[in-house]
Predict the 3D structure of the following.
Amino acid sequence: MAEQAALKLEQEGMVVTGQHGPKASPWFGVHRDCCRELRALSQRLQLGPRGRAPKAPKTVAGRVSYYDRMDLLEGEDDAAN
């Protein structure tokens, strides 16, 4: 429908004569509304560049050394007393 409206705008022009003088073509509103709806649908379906971008990888916690574990356990003993 947006393509049909664009074709009509190309053939007839964006301004047409009305009863009270020149006015915007009614096809202009049709084209605007169709393009707006297409944009909304593409965002919902994630068809844009943001939807195609690779997702960030999940981070994996690093290994804790034996000495770090000892420090953590000593800290818990101090807090309990």
Observations:
- Residues 7 and 27 are 9 Å apart (CA to CA).
- DSSP finds four helices and two strands in the chain.
- The two ends are 76 Å apart (CA to CA).
